[in-house]
Amino acid sequence: MTQAVEVLNRYGTDLVGEPRGSDSECLAGFECFLNIVRALGMGSCISEVGAGGSSPPLLPFSPESNMDGGKRRRLRGSSSFDFKVPGRMFLNGSSEVASMYCKQGRKGINQDAMLVWENFCSKEDTIFCGVFDGHGPYGHRVAKKVRDSFPLKLNAQWDLHHKNRDGLSDHSSATGSYKSEGNGFRLVDEKTSPTDHELDETDTILTLRESFLKACKIMDKELKHHPDIDCFCSGTTAVTLVKQGLNLVIGNVGDSRAVLGTRDHEDSLIAVQLTVDLKPNLPREEERIKLRRGRVFSLQNEPDVARVWLPNSDFPGLAMARAFGDFCLKDFGLIAVPDISYHRLTEKDEFVVLATDGIWDVLSNEEVVDIVASASQSTAARALVESAVRAWKTKFPFCKVDDCAAVCLFFDSDLDFKSTDTKDKLIPEASIDQSEQLALLGEKGVGNEAEKKQQ
Q1: I need a labelling partner for 405 at 20 to 30 A (CA). Which of 134, 155, 356, 440 fits?
Q2: Count of beta carbons in the 10 Å neighbourhood of residue 283
């Protein structure tokens, strides 16, 4: 058993005695632990990715699981429409309004995924963005599945709510939800009341809020019953954003983050965090987990990293309070209910950055905003990721660099704040960095009402 624990510490994932910056964010409960124990009796079929190992992977895989660390990935994605939808980008590259870049770390297969979808589902002046950070044996597959499926589910719920708009158009009740954190909807700028113009947008905003909640519930249910992806001990974070006109609605599940680059009253560039990192030791998150018999505590060698554990076993040690998948913990306080926030753009807002924790673990919000502002729009995401990789090597020289993914969405004041007619504007094709295709293909939470909807 001691040998099994040593294997866990070397290859596995945020579980027993794992140092900061090791392989992934979660290891699977007792079943996944048994897989490793069995592997030891078979001469260890764990291959160290990137070290020339050629032994087969520990867990069963299908041809799409691609456990080779991204070295021989086929030119295909996990969706049949990856190359057919104008304005939909999931590879390293840029467009006129967005820059995106992802780089594999030193932990094995890249488990980060990202998406920018301009003219989202043919909706005028609407953009969807998201980053997804997988963890566990099949985290890379879960992240790509959520990347490909969640936007479609969100759009379907959005369209459905539009058809039932009369049921959501009572401004007296809408305003209460708009201001209430108890109902899972936060104003980022914390105004005491919405302006008249914001009230005019209330229906759209509340519709998106309800659509996010419902789409996340459906997405998690689909993962639970997915025939080809074992999500018992694998999952993913997701921070996703819908921009329609001047409205930004952000849905956050996990510990990825969205940060706004804007100007203050002195015209200095500042960072405004739009989401809350949903860690297990946040008071509301910890309270919910403990009420459901889950446990929250940190390991001695990483006292600053709180984790979620099963009631009677020191597994799996998940370092976030919300995630898609990870069904070994769903009865013990882990949820996939998004924390939803809203921000109305002003002329001082320049861009928003969505990124996985590989970025935020080593760079502050202010550093991220400064890096993006100092780069060209087309190279901003790459500059940010490369800066994070260098910071990992400097700050944690004995730790494995985490996967890093970033999406930078830029706001055009001429386009966003002037009454220009964009009905006939064509969405430009994405500019893809061909050199990266092979590597990339292949304390505030939602309140009780929203949580009950998830169950």
Answers
A1: 155
A2: 10
User: How far apart (Å, rounded) are the C-alpha atoms in residues 5 and 7?
Assistant: 5
Distance in angstroms (rounded) separating the CA atoms of residues 71 and 58: 18
Rounded distance between C-alpha atoms, residue 256 and residue 239, angstroms: 6
Buried b (16+ CB within 10 A) or exposed e, 72-91: ebeeebbbeebeeeebbbbb
What whole-number distance in Å separates Cα of residue 403 and Cα of residue 25?
Answer: 11
Task: With beta carbons less than 8 A apart as the criterion, state whether 231 and 224 touch.
Answer: yes
| Beta strand pairing call for 126-135 and 238-244 | antiparallel
- Topology of domain 80-276+320-454, CATH: Phosphatase 2c; domain 1 (3.60.40)
Going across the sheet that includes 269-273, the strands are 269-273, 257-263, 349-355, 404-410, 98-103, 93-94, 431-432
Residue 110 per-residue DSSP state = -
Please tell me the least confidently modeled range out of 194-198, 212-216, 294-298, 323-327: 194-198
Q: Report the C-alpha gap between 150 and 157 in whole angstroms.
A: 11
Of 4, 24, 1, the closest CA to residue 14 belongs to: 24
Q: Which amino acid, one-letter code, is at 205? A: I
| 316-337 tens-digit pLDDT | 999 999 999 999 999 999 999 9
Rounded-to-integer distance, Cα 62 and Cα 361, Å: 32
The CA angle 45-51-55, to the nearest 5 degrees, is: 20
Cα angle 287, 218, 296; round to 5: 20
What whole-number distance in Å separates Cα of residue 450 and Cα of residue 305?
27
C-alpha span between 95 and 116 (Å, rounded) = 9
Q: How many CA atoms lie within 13 A of 290 on its CB side?
A: 10
Give pLDDT tens digits for 35-69. 433 333 323 222 233 333 333 333 333 333 333 34
